[in-house]
TrEMBL record:
Pfam entry (one): DUF3562
Family annotation (InterPro entries): DUF3562
Organism: Paraburkholderia susongensis
Protein name, UniProt field: DUF3562 domain-containing protein
Length: 67
């Protein structure tokens, strides 16, 4: 049984608020990461979750991040 697809707008908004990053930037990063994961995946159930986690971590650990 596959997992329900998360609401992309909510995911992007959440990451943007948490990382103090413009939603346009997060949206682009999320879409790119999701596409990369989907290209390589054999099982797609958790791909959106993994993509969100990767984008969030990249933004939180970015050397350009303002604290």
């Amino acid at each position: 049984m596959s997992q329900p697809e998360p609401n992309v707008d909510e995911v992007v908004k959440s990451i943007a608020e948490e990382t103090d990053t413009p939603t346009e930037t997060v949206s682009r990063m999320y879409a790119d990461t999701l596409a990369d994961y989907r290209h390589e995946a054999r099982v797609f159930d958790y791909v959106p979750l993994f993509a969100a986690k990767k984008v969030r971590n990249q933004l939180l650990h970015s050397p350009n991040r303002k604290h």
